[in-house]
Amino acid sequence: MNAKSTGFTREQQEYLAQVVMQSGLHRAFAPAGAAPAEPETHYGVPIEDLCKEEVAKYKTHPLDIWRDLEQRTHDNQIAEGLDQFLLRHLGFFNVEPNSQGYMMRLRAPGCQLTAEQFRVLASCAEDFAGGYSHITTRGSLQLREIQPRFVIDMIERMETASLTAQGTGADSARNLTVTPSAGFDVDELVDMRPQAKRLSTRILRTRELQGIPRKFNISFDNAGRLSCLSDTNDIGFLATIVNENDQGVEAGIWCRIALGGITGHKDFARDTGLMCRPEDTVDVAEAMLRVFVEHGDRTNRKKARLKYVLDKHGFDWFLERTQEMLDTFNTNVKLVRLDLAHTEPRVPIDRQAHIGVHPQKQFGLNYIGAALELGRMSPEQMRVLADVADKYGDGDIRLTVWLNPLIPFVPDADVEAACAELAAAGMTVDASSFAAGVVACTGRWGCKLAAAYTKQDALTLVRHLEQKFELDTPINIHFTGCANSCAQHFIGDIGLVGAAAPGGGEGYNILLGGGSDLDQGLARPLIGPVAADDVPAIIEHVVGAFVARRATNQNFLSFVRSLDDAELASLLPDAQRKAA
Q1: How many CB atoms lie within 10 A of CB 30?
Q2: Alpha helices in 193-329 (DSSP H)
Q3: Which residue from 165, 139, 141 is spatially nearest to 151, judged by alpha carbons?
């Protein structure tokens, strides 16, 4: 029976089928006297108890949709409902009506691309998309306004440059992030790009690791000067130096393991007390992913992240299952436990080290961080980045979670010329304390879930603050359009999350005092929701109070955290303070 004969769309049929299964009505039509059949299950869960997304994955594995995609491409037909949910596993998102056509999210393991790959992506942006790209908060790229008829052409062109979008959406292990200065950071302990790339390949080549219970984030932190926000990931591997000890753990470079980060649900990744060698992180991550596949919640999407497996079973249980899984690999990988007192503290993170010119550990070489307007690039700018990387560097381009690119391996003598060429293309290496630390998700312009136009509002706020203040300390401002927190509002010095304003219209809830890594902590509510148009004046008053009242050399985060909740409200303008 097809949709035309019933009058229902495919999505409506699937929904009705799920209702019938969950209600038990299907049992009423079983033959009289028949022995009850064993319930059909998926990872131990009765099919009738699965949420609709899990039913869709059970019926059609995300890797088995290619023929359907070919037909849709031929017909220039955009996928909808559960079909578009499955297509997101291949990296293409139906974002209509907010933005035309599909959004494609690239997989760039280790946050690294070559100059030639950048040129191919620039041609894709011109020929198949809307003529621009955005760097994402997982150190990758997005292209938008892709008509359905171009999807396979885009996939095939990307494949010529060893690029893929697979595993960047829906229930996938998303882009694997690495400290963006890996390989040239003056303070790094170990370059973990090889592990990230090997793990990414293993995930994409393993059927059981596609269509997992929910999205999954993994990060590799080299303990250098730049942050990759490892403590916001489901799994964070953090390089550390182990000193001589009496606990049987060999001195040297190890990786601490942190689990369960999901700051949108107000949880950072927690240190487990266990460690592994850097070269063993790939096997450890795979083992943990497989435990998650077996035990993640497939009935309730809101409880399907790793955090909730840990909340339900405990860290010790999860780590025991991980070691059992590792033992099945026959690799002799063992997790070891060691008190942090036997490890060296990491070096301080430089919050401005992703913008400007910075020396590398290789003598006479530098990396250059170019400031973009909230991660947006034209094809022309993409080609300039590629040309500068080839001409003055070694063709290497890194992407950061702060929405800007890095060009490494630039000799001292070429820095001025490289910076001039970037600046001529609108990519300055200088940025204000506000522009350098502003992060914004796509927002309502391109996302169905967002309640606010985050990128536009973020740019308006930055320009407003730049006219009012010149600071000697950075202030990170995170704009996110909804509670899903793609731009992680809870870890910003200032966090803004989209919400309906009083009386309707676009608005924000405003939070203060969030941080990550050595500054780890969740931001506290200041006020909200307030109208988007009122945000610049409110934040101006907050920053003005900081400038007037801070102690000598005190940064914004320290200042805000020195205030109790009542004192925090004193940062508001009189009108908002009285209303609050």
Answers
A1: 11
A2: 193-204, 281-295, 306-313, 315-328
A3: 165
**DSSP character at residue 61:** -
How far is residue 489's CA from residue 480's CA, in Å, rounded to a whole number? 6
Q: Which of 487, 378, 467 is nearest to 427 (CA)?
A: 378
Residues in the chain predicted with pLDDT less than 50, given as ranges, are: 1-5, 22, 26-28
Unique residue bearing structure tokens 């064993």: 38
Q: Do 179 and 222 form a contact (C-beta atoms < 8 A)?
A: yes
The Cα 321–Cα 315 span in angstroms is: 10
Residue for token pair 């927690």:
270
Q: In angstroms, what is the C-alpha Rg of the chain?
A: 25
**Rounded Cα distance, 470 and 173, in Å:** 41
Residue type, 54: E
Backbone angles phi, psi at 405, to 5 degrees: -95, 155
Report d(CA 270, CA 288) in Å as an integer.
15
The 10s digit of each residue's pLDDT in 62-95 is 999 999 999 999 999 999 999 999 999 999 999 9
Nearest alpha-carbon partner for 336 in 225, 231, 257: 257
Q: What strand order describes the sheet that includes 102-105?
A: 92-94, 102-105, 141-146, 133-135, 376-377
Distance CA 383, CA 97 (A): 30
Q: Which of 81, 325, 18, 53 is nearest to 215 (CA)?
A: 53
Nearest to 477 by CA among 469, 465, 468: 465
Q: What is the pLDDT of residue 483?
A: 87
Helix (H) or strand (E) run with residue 73 in it: helix 66-75
Amino acid at 20: V
How many CB atoms sit inside 10 A of residue 381's CB?
21
Is residue 561 exposed (0-12), middle (13-18) or buried (19+ Cβ within 10 Å)? middle
Residue 278 amino acid letter = P
Residues 6+ apart with CB under 8 A from 121: 106, 113, 133, 141, 143, 158, 161, 163, 382
Contact 479, 458 (CB under 8 A): yes
Calpha distance 532→474 (Å, rounded) = 23
Q: The pTM is what?
A: 0.91
CA dist 65 → 79, 84, 142, 390, 453 (Å) = 11, 10, 22, 38, 33
CA torsion, ordered 406, 408, 412, 413, to nearest 10 deg: -90
Beta bridge partners of 177: 219
Q: Could you tell me which of 232, 271, 233 has the C-alpha nearest to residue 255?
A: 271
State how far the alpha carbon of 177 is from the alpha carbons of 194, 220, 234, 401, 507, in Å.
12, 6, 12, 8, 31
Give the pLDDT confidence score for residue 550 in this predicted structure: 95
Q: Which two three-digit tokens encode residue 179? A: 């400290």
Q: Rounded to the nearest 5°, which phi and psi values hold at 503?
A: 85, 5
Using CA atoms, how far residue 310 sits from 45, 261, 268, 269, 491, in Å, is 19, 11, 13, 11, 22
Half-sphere exposure of 77 toward its Cβ, with a 13 Å CA cutoff? 11
pLDDT score for 438 = 93
